[in-house]
Amino acid sequence: MDSNSNQPKPSLQSGLSLIEKAQELRWTLQLATAVLFADLLLAWRTGTGIVQWSIQADHLLANSGFLLVSVLGYGVLMSVVIPLTGEFVRRLVWDLLIAIPWPRWMQNERDYRRPVGGVLPSELKKYAYQKDDRALLDIVASHQELERKSIVESLAAGQIVFSVLLVGFLNYFPGLLGIHAPTLLNEVKATFGHAGEFAIAGALICGFLAMKVMWFSVEPMRWIDYPPLYEELEKARKEQRLVK
To answer: Is this model's pTM higher than 0.90 or not?
Structure first.
């Protein structure tokens, strides 16, 4: 009997549910950015934020041009301004993290220890060319594609979190933009008092932690499980030790 037959395998349903949850969270963060941005525009345009704003058909029609320009401005903000600003901030922080001699306990070091049966993509690729095995080359290509997608998704998720933090910061301190009307986050603080302040502080901490994971963490070694090559590498390594 195949020993692997009893091993639990990830179900398609559970995988799809994880994707759906990630998409829901991303949509929620994008909606939060849109609401905070709209609140800033309303505070600047009318002197009242989104909390005091009443939706009236005639009022909307009278300001339809402003609404269209606002939608365009939001699109430019999310597609050009924030991505460029986020990438500049990410590179600047990385340079600071590298330049500053942080205490050892604060450093995030990569684990180079080889797991049992694990080989590097470059090692398996070289082995595949030596054996002229197209199937192994396909495994390496698939692994590298998954790695590329993982990096792209992390960067994109970090951009969304950065957009919420940036627009939220401006919403909390509208005076930096010359806006002196009460905004949404100011209303939260005024309405709920210390509880509102703690909620905003907690969201800020969660945002920074999320950016730390997605933007400023050392990527782990991405091993491919291929025991035949692993055994050959281990055998060659042991022989090399004996020669020395």
So the answer is: no
